[in-house]
Specification:
GO molecular function, one term: isomerase activity
Shape: elongated
Organism: Chryseobacterium kwangjuense
Number of strands: 4
CATH class: Alpha Beta
Protein name: Peptidylprolyl isomerase
Keywords: Isomerase, Signal
Largest sheet: 4 strands, antiparallel
CATH architecture: Roll
Number of domains: 1
Radius of gyration: 27 Å
Length: 147
Protein backbone atom coordinates (compact mmCIF):
# COMPACT_ATOMS: atom_id res chain seq x y z
CA UNK A 1 0.00 0.00 0.00
CA UNK A 2 2.87 2.31 0.84
CA UNK A 3 4.47 1.63 -2.56
CA UNK A 4 1.23 2.51 -4.40
CA UNK A 5 0.78 5.68 -2.35
CA UNK A 6 4.42 6.68 -2.98
CA UNK A 7 4.05 5.97 -6.70
CA UNK A 8 0.89 8.14 -6.91
CA UNK A 9 2.63 11.02 -5.11
CA UNK A 10 5.59 10.90 -7.51
CA UNK A 11 3.30 10.68 -10.56
CA UNK A 12 1.05 13.54 -9.40
CA UNK A 13 4.03 15.77 -8.59
CA UNK A 14 5.43 15.20 -12.09
CA UNK A 15 2.07 16.06 -13.63
CA UNK A 16 1.76 19.18 -11.49
CA UNK A 17 5.18 20.48 -12.53
CA UNK A 18 4.67 19.53 -16.19
CA UNK A 19 1.63 21.85 -16.45
CA UNK A 20 3.57 24.99 -15.59
CA UNK A 21 3.75 27.57 -18.42
CA UNK A 22 6.47 30.16 -18.24
CA UNK A 23 6.19 33.63 -19.78
CA UNK A 24 4.54 33.09 -23.16
CA UNK A 25 3.43 36.37 -24.71
CA UNK A 26 1.65 36.80 -28.00
CA UNK A 27 1.90 40.31 -29.31
CA UNK A 28 0.36 41.59 -32.50
CA UNK A 29 2.11 44.60 -33.94
CA UNK A 30 -0.52 47.20 -34.73
CA UNK A 31 -0.04 50.54 -36.34
CA UNK A 32 -1.00 53.40 -34.07
CA UNK A 33 -3.84 55.40 -35.64
CA UNK A 34 -5.13 58.71 -34.40
CA UNK A 35 -8.72 58.96 -33.18
CA UNK A 36 -9.76 61.48 -35.83
CA UNK A 37 -8.54 62.69 -39.20
CA UNK A 38 -6.82 66.06 -39.31
CA UNK A 39 -8.47 68.93 -41.17
CA UNK A 40 -5.68 68.90 -43.76
CA UNK A 41 -6.23 65.20 -44.47
CA UNK A 42 -10.01 65.65 -44.65
CA UNK A 43 -9.52 68.50 -47.10
CA UNK A 44 -7.13 66.41 -49.25
CA UNK A 45 -9.44 63.38 -49.28
CA UNK A 46 -12.54 65.49 -49.94
CA UNK A 47 -10.89 67.34 -52.84
CA UNK A 48 -9.76 64.06 -54.41
CA UNK A 49 -13.22 62.53 -54.06
CA UNK A 50 -14.93 65.57 -55.59
CA UNK A 51 -12.44 65.46 -58.50
CA UNK A 52 -13.28 61.76 -58.86
CA UNK A 53 -17.01 62.54 -59.04
CA UNK A 54 -16.40 65.26 -61.65
CA UNK A 55 -14.30 62.85 -63.71
CA UNK A 56 -17.11 60.28 -63.48
CA UNK A 57 -19.62 62.87 -64.72
CA UNK A 58 -17.70 63.46 -67.94
CA UNK A 59 -16.42 59.84 -68.20
CA UNK A 60 -12.78 60.94 -68.12
CA UNK A 61 -10.98 57.63 -67.60
CA UNK A 62 -7.39 59.05 -67.37
CA UNK A 63 -8.50 61.51 -64.66
CA UNK A 64 -10.24 58.70 -62.76
CA UNK A 65 -7.13 56.50 -63.01
CA UNK A 66 -4.96 59.34 -61.68
CA UNK A 67 -7.13 59.52 -58.53
CA UNK A 68 -7.36 55.76 -57.93
CA UNK A 69 -4.92 53.77 -55.83
CA UNK A 70 -2.40 51.58 -57.63
CA UNK A 71 -3.85 48.61 -55.76
CA UNK A 72 -7.22 48.91 -57.51
CA UNK A 73 -6.32 50.48 -60.86
CA UNK A 74 -5.80 47.12 -62.51
CA UNK A 75 -9.10 45.61 -61.40
CA UNK A 76 -11.33 48.64 -62.02
CA UNK A 77 -13.02 48.28 -65.40
CA UNK A 78 -15.36 50.60 -67.26
CA UNK A 79 -18.28 48.41 -66.11
CA UNK A 80 -17.32 48.89 -62.47
CA UNK A 81 -17.06 52.66 -62.97
CA UNK A 82 -20.48 52.61 -64.65
CA UNK A 83 -21.97 50.78 -61.63
CA UNK A 84 -20.38 53.30 -59.25
CA UNK A 85 -21.74 56.15 -61.37
CA UNK A 86 -25.24 54.62 -61.28
CA UNK A 87 -24.95 53.94 -57.55
CA UNK A 88 -25.45 57.57 -56.56
CA UNK A 89 -26.70 60.78 -58.12
CA UNK A 90 -23.57 62.55 -59.35
CA UNK A 91 -25.53 65.70 -60.18
CA UNK A 92 -26.50 66.35 -56.55
CA UNK A 93 -24.12 68.22 -54.27
CA UNK A 94 -22.43 66.07 -51.63
CA UNK A 95 -21.44 67.09 -48.12
CA UNK A 96 -19.40 65.31 -45.48
CA UNK A 97 -21.48 63.37 -42.99
CA UNK A 98 -18.77 61.58 -41.00
CA UNK A 99 -15.02 61.07 -41.11
CA UNK A 100 -12.99 58.34 -39.49
CA UNK A 101 -11.25 55.06 -40.17
CA UNK A 102 -12.64 51.98 -41.91
CA UNK A 103 -11.43 48.68 -40.44
CA UNK A 104 -10.45 46.07 -43.01
CA UNK A 105 -10.66 42.30 -42.70
CA UNK A 106 -6.91 41.99 -42.12
CA UNK A 107 -7.12 44.25 -39.08
CA UNK A 108 -5.66 47.36 -40.66
CA UNK A 109 -7.54 50.66 -40.75
CA UNK A 110 -7.76 53.16 -43.57
CA UNK A 111 -9.16 56.71 -43.63
CA UNK A 112 -12.73 57.03 -44.85
CA UNK A 113 -15.31 59.74 -45.38
CA UNK A 114 -19.06 59.23 -45.46
CA UNK A 115 -20.98 61.63 -47.68
CA UNK A 116 -24.64 62.52 -47.85
CA UNK A 117 -26.61 64.61 -50.29
CA UNK A 118 -26.74 68.31 -49.40
CA UNK A 119 -30.13 69.22 -47.93
CA UNK A 120 -31.01 65.58 -47.14
CA UNK A 121 -31.92 65.61 -43.46
CA UNK A 122 -32.62 61.88 -43.23
CA UNK A 123 -29.17 60.81 -44.53
CA UNK A 124 -30.55 57.43 -45.61
CA UNK A 125 -28.35 57.36 -48.70
CA UNK A 126 -24.73 57.49 -47.59
CA UNK A 127 -21.75 57.18 -49.91
CA UNK A 128 -18.54 55.92 -48.30
CA UNK A 129 -15.12 56.59 -49.79
CA UNK A 130 -12.05 54.78 -48.46
CA UNK A 131 -8.63 56.33 -49.06
CA UNK A 132 -4.97 55.47 -48.75
CA UNK A 133 -2.87 57.71 -46.52
CA UNK A 134 -1.56 59.62 -49.54
CA UNK A 135 -5.09 60.59 -50.65
CA UNK A 136 -5.59 58.05 -53.45
CA UNK A 137 -9.05 56.49 -53.57
CA UNK A 138 -9.09 52.82 -52.63
CA UNK A 139 -12.82 52.23 -52.77
CA UNK A 140 -16.21 53.90 -53.18
CA UNK A 141 -19.34 52.28 -51.82
CA UNK A 142 -22.34 54.05 -53.31
CA UNK A 143 -25.70 54.34 -51.62
CA UNK A 144 -28.46 51.93 -52.53
CA UNK A 145 -31.17 53.55 -54.58
CA UNK A 146 -34.68 52.53 -53.64
CA UNK A 147 -37.20 52.43 -56.45
Amino acid sequence: MKKIFLGLIILSSQLAFAQKVTGVKVEKAQKEIPAQLTKEKISLYNDNFLKFVEALKVSDRPAVDALLSDKVKEIVTDDILKKVKEGFDINKKLEILKTGYHKLMDGSSLPSINYKYAGDASSKEVIMAVFEEDGKILGVMPAKKTK
